[in-house]
Amino acid sequence: MHALDSTGFHFSQVTGMQKFTGCVHATTTSLHRQTDKHHPLENLTSVEVGVDKNVKAGSSTKTGRNRQECLGHPALVTILARFFGKLLGQELDPLTNVLVTVGAYEALFCCFQALVDEGDEVIIIEPFFDCYEPMVKMAGGTSVFVQLRPKAAETGKLMSSGDWQLDPAELASRFTERTKAIVLNSPNNPLGKVFTREEMEFIADLCVKHDVLCFSDEVYEWLVYDGKEHIRIASLPGMWDRTITIGSAGKTFSTTGWKVGWTLGPDHLLKHLRTVHQNSVYHCPTAAQEALAQAFQREFDSYGKPDSYFVQLSQELQQKRDWLVRSLVAGGMKPIVPEGTYFLMADFSEFKSEVPDVPDSDEPYDSRFIKWMIINKGLVAIPVSAFYSTPHKRNFDHLIRFCFAKEEATLKAAEDILQQWSLEKTGQ
Ligand SMILES: Cc1ncc(COP(=O)(O)O)c(C=O)c1O
């Protein structure tokens, strides 16, 4: 049953949300607007003494404005709204369409906690970033899985992440009356798949048809290779009003330790995320937000130009990807060439004779293989079975995930280890 929410939007999925009844909603945005208009002595609401005032560049108490910190440092939400508004073809209000979070992790957590209710189903595409499933569960929902299935690579070519595709009929069959949301992660961790416009349009059409939300995890949005295009599902027809777009400074500016993330979306969805954020984290450290705001401002000015960090980063990582692919092939593994991210999955079936299987073991084979590889070869990777739901883990335990966002010395050391291993294997 569809109904109008307080913004006048005709949308059943959000108005159906009962679980925050009685919770404090973020009232700060209306206060901010009044403050902007009437300029009261606002520092009476905040601490004006201490180390912040004198020392920290970008600290909001220093500038006398700490009032928007709950939703994000003013300089950051402003530039995020400008930057992504342009890319999404959408005018974004920094106060109501942007929320800054502690990394994309908190952004995801807010999505599930805010918008998934007891009994709701959430569609997750396998392989998936492993926190989605527990986050759905913690929100009281049920995960429904659909797999990207590999088709054979073109003769003489290595398999690409683009060879992994959804079966349209299978995907359509996962949408039921209970479906609240689908999680889309493009470029995908761990596979590196960059969903095509056609694939996105198919997903978008299903979301519109079934009145379903989309949590679009786009943390690797700038890491796309071979001229591939990152499509933002929120920019497709009918999707802005039902999509939360998630980003991460950690992936965008290679600053994992800063732990700054963000969500972009319509106010009628973000207001529920603000409730979760306001009553858990409240606000994120200002220094990292200020630094990120400056980095985004610089990118805004050099967007698409050769000195853009985003342009340079993907060029550099594409070369590193190709280097690791060559090393793995020379060593006897079968890499799946990723179109995006800085991860790469490789098939190690050729090495199975080195580590015998233990059929009744609870531990997936890829996990045992990696433990053996660490001890005997000094190489580490992540088991791909960790990115599958329990019933499907065994079908993918011949794959491991490497990361190629590494110093040249590390890539060279990996190349040497793989070469040596291959020589030992062939008895040379
Ligand atoms: C697909 C995906 N989403 C979200 C995150 C979390 O990002 P952050 O480090 O900003 O919390 C990661 C981190 O590895 C990721 O791979």
Low-confidence stretches: 1-11, 45-64
Global morphology: globular
Report helical residue fraction: 25-40%
- State the domain count: 2
Main pleated sheet: 7 strands, mixed
Q: What is the number of E strands?
A: 13
Order of helices and strands: HHHHEHEHEEEHEHEEHEHHHEEHEEH
Oligomeric state of shown chains: single chain
Assign the structural class, choosing from mainly alpha, mainly beta, alpha/beta, alpha+beta, or little secondary structure: alpha/beta
Distance from first to last alpha carbon: 70 Å
Overall mean pLDDT stands at 89
User: Biggest sheet: strands side by side, in what order?
Assistant: 1-9-8-7-6-2-3
CATH superfamily of the largest domain: Type I PLP-dependent aspartate aminotransferase-like (Major domain)
Which CATH C-level class of the largest domain is it?
Alpha Beta
Bound molecules: pyridoxal-5'-phosphate
Strand percent estimate: 5-15%
Number of helices: 14
The CATH topology name of the largest domain reads Aspartate Aminotransferase, domain 2
CATH architecture classification name of the largest domain: 3-Layer(aba) Sandwich
Radius of gyration over C-alpha positions, nearest whole angstrom: 23 Å
Pathway: Amino-acid degradation; L-kynurenine degradation; kynurenate from L-kynurenine: step 1/2
Protein name: Kynurenine--oxoglutarate transaminase 1
Organism: Gopherus evgoodei (Goodes thornscrub tortoise)
Subcellular location: Cytoplasm, Cytosol
Explain what the structure shows.
The chain is built from 14 helices and 13 strands. By secondary structure, the chain is α/β, with parallel strands linked by helices. The protein has 2 domains: 250 residues, Aspartate Aminotransferase, domain 2 (3-Layer(aba) Sandwich); 117 residues, Aspartate Aminotransferase, domain 1 (Alpha-Beta Complex), CATH 3.90.1150.10. The strands form 3 sheets. It has a 7-stranded mixed β-sheet with strand order 1-9-8-7-6-2-3, sandwiched between helices. Strands 10-11-13-12 form a 4-stranded antiparallel β-sheet. α8 links the parallel β6 and β7. The N terminus is likely disordered. The site of pyridoxal-5'-phosphate has 12 residues, from α5. Belongs to the class-I pyridoxal-phosphate-dependent aminotransferase family. GO terms for molecular function: cysteine-S-conjugate beta-lyase activity; glutamine-phenylpyruvate transaminase activity; kynurenine-oxoglutarate transaminase activity; pyridoxal phosphate binding. It catalyses: 3-phenylpyruvate + L-glutamine = 2-oxoglutaramate + L-phenylalanine; an S-substituted L-cysteine + H2O = a thiol + pyruvate + NH4(+); L-kynurenine + 2-oxoglutarate = kynurenate + L-glutamate + H2O. Its cofactor is pyridoxal 5'-phosphate.
